């Protein structure tokens, strides 16, 4: 009896597989030339540094001599205001008090950034940003 049920079930599934009906749907695309809608951005524009951020950080970092042998990253979070100024600097993950202070000095001395834009209005807005300031051991000369 169980073999009969098995064969009946098997024949049901195999017969269904042969009757697959594929009907591709036609899609019409209509483009309006006089549309007044603004294009919507899929990803909101984030704040961005004007130029090469890593190059600027390397050029302007003044590593304290007392922390010459310490190597690692300081994770810094700050607010990029709608006019591009940097404010409200916070250390999220420190490394050493001297290197943390240098990371804050470095961020505070940055030139103005390109601010973030609101996704709907495309107007500048305040936005927080996080970067890692990397400190490597100084080569002995």
Automatic annotation (TrEMBL):
Highest taxon listed in the record's lineage: Bacteria
Membrane topology term: Single-pass membrane protein
Family classification: Belongs to the TonB family.
Domain TonB C-terminal residues, every copy: 68-135
Organism, scientific name: Prevotella veroralis F0319
NCBIfam families from the UniProt entry: tonB_Cterm
UniProt main location, coarse: membrane
Keyword list, A-Z: Cell inner membrane, Cell membrane, Membrane, Protein transport, Transmembrane, Transmembrane helix, Transport
Subcellular location(s) of the protein: Cell inner membrane
GO MF annotation: an example: energy transducer activity
Pfam families, alphabetized: TonB_C
PANTHER family reported for this sequence: PROTEIN TONB (PTHR33446:SF2), PROTEIN TONB-RELATED (PTHR33446)
SUPFAM superfamilies in UniProt: TolA/TonB C-terminal domain (SSF74653)
GO biological process, one term: protein transport
Full protein name: TonB family domain protein
GO cellular component, one term: plasma membrane protein complex
